[in-house]
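User: Run a structure prediction on this.
Assistant: Running it now.
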Amino acid sequence: MNNRQLKGVFLFLLLSFSNFALAQNTNTGNWINYFGNKKISEKWNWWHEVQFRNYNAVGDLEQLLIRTGLGYNISKTDNLHLGYAYVLSEPYISGTTDKNTIVEHRIYQQLVNRNTFGRGTFMTRLRFEERFISTGFKTRFRAMNWINYPINSKSITDKTVYLSAYHEIFLNGKGPTFDRLRLYGALGYFINKKIKVELGYLSQIQTNKSRGQWQIAAFTNY
């Protein structure tokens, strides 16, 4: 498959998603995400992200998440990270069309390990969160495994199409141990080595319910 055909496939998927998302009801949501990583020095990096999560295609806010943090490379493959997140949630009140407003201030610590396998990359992330919520204080542990695999080249270069997938489990520090499980799959495109975009689908499984979200994400690394 040549570059023109790959661009056609990616454009077709994007247009298909747009038409599909606009036709959905609140059973399937949509997340619009931006993730940025800025290299400060050989050892230090600054992480920043914004996630706009909707109950529908767009306009019915479920959650706004703004996260930032400072990372330190303890080795060539491992990064230790300390950060803060502001989370605004608007859950529906059961049986009504009204919403509650819940504000959360979150501090988190994480360890990220990145390695390669063949022409793919593999990342493991362990994160611990202290959550100061308007309804009380909670802690949570999260463990993620993430894989990126290029399709049309042997490594990540300009105009590389790739597959992306991850699973992440959330465990509460108090109360029911299991919080949720996320399963994600996506098709991505490296515009160049510093900018990539992804179109994917996330299934979020909780004890009493599960829900799907389409995702559009942009990533910068500079």
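Residues 12-26 have pLDDT under 50 and may be disordered.
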